[in-house]
Design a protein that fits this description.
There is one protein chain. This protein has one domain. Helices cover 75% and strands 0% of the residues. Helix 2 runs antiparallel to helix 3, helix 5 crosses helix 9 and helix 15 runs antiparallel to helix 16.
Length: 352
């Protein structure tokens, strides 16, 4: 049976008024839960008799803050994208966001990432939502790279700590990495390396399933169907990925990282990138570490390359992406982005 058949009006005999009431209650609950994530994690750590001053306590806090955050974002974004898909057939959406000129879609997606202060795992839900709406693969990758790496949080913190020159150069280089990497992935035509369930969602003709002008009940049903389809498949990977990130976040010492991030050895930048890949945090969490590393004598370009790899190529992100992407596509994405990050590190060390 076609997956889209579950969205039909006959399956869910609810009126528009009933749906609006449900959405109002769900929205209030969503915002209330999201606003209390930090308080919930703090309370749980205390209830377990732990302290955030210990590695284990910090890891537990990280896990119970980030897991519900990502699940809430995934549910909300996928629901909205499911509704959006009923307005645009995949081919129409693909044409809209590809742009008339080569790379325009990548530029727009990377620019959108600047104003979405997501960590890498939080950006994945919107990435999957874009894919399900038929947005071109390379364009979605430009957003996935830019959102965690080049957002306003990172830029403001870099400006405050290192001045406008560093912040401006980071902005330009980060956008270039996101745009070029997404452009290259798009040119490689790697859609065949999406998992089958993603391809089925992309191939579904929503307009045909509901007729040319579906009603709002059918649109809301489509959004809820997307939540069940996508969240139901991805959540175990979210738990596994964030658990790994929490352990690394709590236990990896700064002194170890600063010991080899000097400017005078050629392998410092590649080593910093490799070290950053297994780790996981967001821009707000990594920039204080960047400041501490520089204070211990590490080179700015090497540390920023480390920062970029942590927030754009984290192992937890790869684990979550594995549910939607096949290993070949994940490896290609990681290789292209890592190459761009290496160039950024060497450029910063050369000019600053």
């Amino acid at each position: 049976m076609n997956n889209l058949s579950q969205f039909s009006l006959a399956k869910t005999p609810a009126s528009v008024g009933q749906w609006l009431l449900r959405l109002f209650i769900a929205s209030v609950a969503w915002f209330a839960a999201y606003s209390q994530l930090t308080a919930f994690a703090d309370w749980l750590v205390q209830a377990l008799g732990l302290s955030r001053q210990t590695p284990f306590g910090e890891a537990v806090h990280f896990f119970f803050y980030d897991t519900p955050k990502v699940l809430l974002l995934l549910t909300g974004i996928v629901f909205v994208m499911g509704i959006v898909q009923t307005f645009f057939a995949p081919e129409r959406t693909r044409a809209l966001l590809s742009g008339k000129r080569v790379g325009v879609g990548n530029l727009l997606a990377a620019s959108l990432g600047i104003v979405t202060p997501f960590c890498s795992c939080s950006a994945v839900p919107l990435f999957i939502g874009f894919l399900s709406a038929g947005v071109p693969l390379g364009v979605t990758f430009s957003f996935l790279i830019s959102a965690p790496m080049v957002n306003e949080v990172a830029l403001v913190l870099l400006f405050g700590m290192f001045g406008w020159k560093v912040a401006a150069l980071y902005l330009v280089m980060g956008l270039l990495v996101a745009i070029v990497a997404g452009f290259v992935i798009g040119k490689l035509n790697m859609e065949r390396y999406l998992e089958d369930w993603v391809l089925k969602i992309q191939a579904g003709q929503v307009d045909q399933a509901f007729g040319d002008r579906p009603g709002w009940v059918a649109r809301f049903d489509a959004g809820w169907g997307h939540v069940r389809e996508i969240v139901g498949k991805v959540w175990p990977y979210i738990f596994a990925g964030i658990a790994l990130g929490a352990g690394i976040h709590g236990y990896v010492p700064e002194d170890f990282m600063a010991s080899f991030m000097g400017r005078d050895v050629w392998w410092a930048v590649p080593a910093a990138v490799l070290l950053g890949v297994p780790m996981y945090t967001n821009a707000a969490g990594i920039i204080p570490i960047v400041e501490a590393l520089i204070g211990k004598g590490a080179a700015l370009g090497t540390v920023l390359a480390f920062m970029m790899s942590v927030i754009a190529l984290s192992a937890p992100e790869m684990i979550i992406l594995r549910k939607a992407l096949k290993p070949t596509l994940i490896a290609t994405f990681a290789g292209i982005v890592a190459t761009g990050i290496l160039l950024v590190g060497y450029v910063f060390n050369l000019v600053l």
